[in-house]
Amino acid sequence: MSLSLSSNAFSIRPTKYEALRRRFSSQFISPIQVSSSTRAFSVSHVYSPSIFKFGRERLNPITASAAAAAETSPSSFRNKTPKDINVLVVGSTGYIGKFVVRELVKRGFNAIAVARERSGIRGRNSKDETLNDLKEANVCFSDVTDLETLEKSVEGLGCDIDVVVSCLASRSGGVKDSWKIDYEATRNSLLAGRKFGAVHFVLLSAICVQKPLLEFQRAKLKFEAELVKEAEEDDKFTYSIVRPTAFFKSLGGQVELVKDGKPYVMFGDGKLCACKPISEPDLASFIADCVLSEDKINQILPIGGPGKALTPLEQGEILFRLLGKEPKFLKVPIEIMDFAIGVLDFLVKIFPGLEDAAEFGKIGRYYAAESMLILDPETGEYSSDQTPSYGKDTLEEFFEKVLREGMAGQELGEQTII
Ligand SMILES: NC(=O)c1ccc[n+]([C@@H]2O[C@H](COP(=O)([O-])OP(=O)(O)OC[C@H]3O[C@@H](n4cnc5c(N)ncnc54)[C@H](OP(=O)(O)O)[C@@H]3O)[C@@H](O)[C@H]2O)c1
Questions:
Q1: Which of 193, 239, 186 has its CA nearest to residue 88?
Q2: In the chain, what are the domains?
Q3: Separation of 35 CA from ligand 1 center, angstroms?
């Protein structure tokens, strides 16, 4: 079944939707990334004698003893040298997770990357490709969606865990998958980490949770609340919750189209939503800082990239300037999305299977209208000035790279909508 409300404006057919999302992606800070082939590994399917399997070489042998974990004080792991600090990374095969693993390895930590046997968008990467992507880290193939399996995998490592870093996210943003990954699987990683000594948890969340209208935001917030509670109940445990603004991949969807002579498409006057985009390496560096920095303990940390906030209109202007072309904008009324969402909300009452389609419509509407900046609760206004900046990579440099090399490696993912 498909529903097209406009020739190029909205469709719930997966392919059309993908095209639309790309087209409007300057305004879709899209969490819409799905693996339609999610597989849970049964214990018998995984490797013996232990459930995990390290990468080709154990470059960073794990030496700490589990017994030591019991005596861990809040900051004792911070006194160790990085090579003796065991950091379990879940969501290690994602857009940001991969960079986080690389950054942790670069800083000398003993990074243990948890991955699925088939990782990446639609499970496109084999084990060997995953091992290659995460080279120099220890790779533990497991299933974060199953607590028992994950605990056995961590037990099989034969060492304590000092810190858990989660870059997990639903690849679809669909209702059930969001709860399964952004809440349950992330919680599993906390529980498994805690069982084996983890005293610090770094969570990659999102700045948009400050105005939660979507299921994945509610799922993230529920986990954030549990993380905070854990630290309140155990003063040996700490957390850092990182809430970034837009990623570069979410803003590059129109670069190649504009290069091919198409207009830059934006909602309303092009000023409805602004963000301070941050690159994968810069965000990974910030997340890695959270492992040791005492000033990031028990904090919620909104973070954007360098420079001032950019509206879609300004992003389009940058693009036309780089191309040396006269700006050509297509302004789409935001009401089009409201109409489409209204229709989907009505249909979902008759066809519950359209639940995710309706949610994707809401996600699109959200990112077309809401800025990815600090929201002042008193004024209800988004503030560029209050949104912290970090790093050095600019969106302009990213656009230049995409113009040169295309969007390879910046895939948003794929969603199964119906
Ligand atoms: N896009 C933006 O502009 C933006 C802005 C701010 C914040 N954020 C937030 O940043 C976070 C990470 O984003 P990202 O783009 O790095 O995510 P991503 O590329 O979609 O990566 C998601 C990670 O979670 C894992 N995962 C998903 N479903 C799984 C399952 N069923 N079982 C096991 N593992 C599963 C994936 O593993 P596989 O490789 O095996 O699938 C992957 O490692 C999200 O929380 C997002 O909301 C995004």
A1: 193
A2: 4-34+250-275+306-405 (no CATH), 43-248+279-303 (3.40.50.720)
A3: 10
